[in-house]
Specification:
With 403 residues, the protein is α+β, with helices and mostly antiparallel strands. 45% of the residues lie in helices and 13% in strands. Bound molecules: 4-cyclopropylbenzoic acid.
């Protein structure tokens, strides 16, 4: 037992971080969360929240105390039945987590990806050609940020054509389910069975092309690195984690450049900045805003005793704008070193697909930098509300092509 005498009572917030108002613009809530203290009790959900970089980073690193195996959503897997078979990676900890993790680390590693670079560049060029020949105005979300990952990622995994239209709706629902059972979750419920069946049907060996990430996962099962019953669930992880995230990551960097034209000029003069640009946008926008952890023991943080078995909301988006960690945190600045951001998480669960995400974004930005002199937002930008994702519905832009 830990005995704690708190000098200050734990700050309490009555706010709902999953309300439409805060999902529309989470920044004022994040400022209040960081100002209130290192740990805040969210009365409405009977959970704790962390919004400062230092504590979020430390908790993500300490998986022994802040486990994932009880679920990384609000609902506790040890008390409530999950809506789908839990992920073997996201919703697991060592030792179970490690074999699936090692397989994906290799399949999605920089070495393996190198072979895809040329084909992806050609795909990005043809997509940008199509957009520019159709006129200089388009929607940067649907026509580019969603179109590009959907052009390259399902092929890279090796799933069939049929059912690809279900990837985004399935992902949107999956990311909603990490939050409370609010109207965003209710909206997805009528289609769960159909979407789940469609996605699960893509994960079997027979559904997959012989050379993609999916087939490589099955080959790892043949080698005995994982079991054959684990293979389809690991393929499913790619389909859950790999689509909505990259779509909104690419949307984030396009939005950042559209609203910071001087940074676009800088990128065009030094295209090697594409990777910094993407990570800086992931820091600023944090497409994955939040995840929960569950305490495995009583733990004291900043004078607050969090009992064993409590859920803690890790506010990645807030940590990534913490002024105690970042100078001018709200600026999109290509001269900054964004490394250390927690937009891909941190520690043993840090995004295993981050090289894929970076390569997708770098490919799109590289082609745009050659073909587009400037671009600007025209008309109304619209957010898409999701319990976990900071997402976009629409970003209408006008581009000035390089003549
Ligand atoms: C989030 O199903 C999964 O394995 C999975 C789902 C969602 C994520 C990660 C893994 C972080 C992007």
């Amino acid at each position: 037992m830990t005995t704690v005498t708190s000098a200050e009572p734990t700050p309490v917030s009555g706010a709902d971080p999953f309300s439409a108002e805060i999902l529309e613009d989470p920044l004022p809530f994040q400022i209040a969360l960081r100002a209130a203290g290192p740990v805040v009790y969210l009365e409405r959900y009977d959970v704790y929240a962390m919004g400062r970089y230092q504590e979020v980073h430390a908790a993500l690193t300490d998986w022994q105390t802040f486990q994932s195996a009880a679920g990384v959503g609000l609902s506790n897997f040890r008390k409530e039945k999950p809506w789908r078979t839990p992920s073997l990676l996201l919703e697991a900890d060592p030792p179970h987590h490690d074999a699936p993790r090692a397989v994906l680390t290799k399949v999605l590693g920089p070495r393996e990806l190198r072979g895809l670079a040329a084909a992806w560049a050609a795909d990005a060029e043809s997509l940008v050609n199509e957009l520019l020949s159709a006129g200089n105005e388009f929607d940067a979300v649907t026509d580019l940020a969603a179109a590009f990952p959907l052009r390259v990622f399902p092929d890279a995994v090796g799933i069939p054509q049929e059912g690809r239209e279900n990837l985004l709706p399935y992902g949107d629902h999956a990311f909603n389910t990490f939050g409370p059972p609010n109207e965003l979750v209710a909206k997805g419920e009528p289609r769960i069975a159909e979407l789940m069946a469609s996605i699960s049907g893509m994960c079997g060996r027979d559904a997959l092309t012989p050379d993609g990430f999916g087939a490589q996962i099955w080959a790892a099962a043949d080698r005995g690195d994982i079991t054959h019953s684990q293979a389809p669930l690991i393929v499913r992880s790619l389909l859950t984690a790999g689509v909505d995230t990259t779509v909104n990551g690419i949307a984030a960097v396009l939005f950042a450049f559209a609203s910071h034209p001087e940074q676009w000029t800088r990128l065009r003069s030094d295209p090697s900045l594409v990777r910094i640009a993407f990570d800086e946008a992931v820091r600023l926008e944090s497409p994955v805003q939040t995840f929960f952890r569950t305490t495995t023991r009583d733990i004291e943080i900043g004078g607050t005793l969090i009992p064993e078995g409590k859920k803690i909301l890790m506010f990645l988006g807030s940590a990534n704008r913490d002024p105690l960690r970042w100078e001018n945190p709200n600026d999109f600045d290509l001269t900054r070193d964004p490394s250390g951001h927690v937009g891909f998480g941190f520690g043993i669960h840090q995004c295993v697909g981050q090289h894929v995400a970076r390569m997708e974004a770098a490919t799109v930005l590289g082609v745009l930098a050659k073909r587009v002199e400037s671009f600007e937002l025209i008309g109304k930008t619209r957010r898409h509300h999701n319990n976990t994702l900071r997402a976009w519905e629409s970003l209408p832009v006008r581009v000035k092509p390089v003549s």
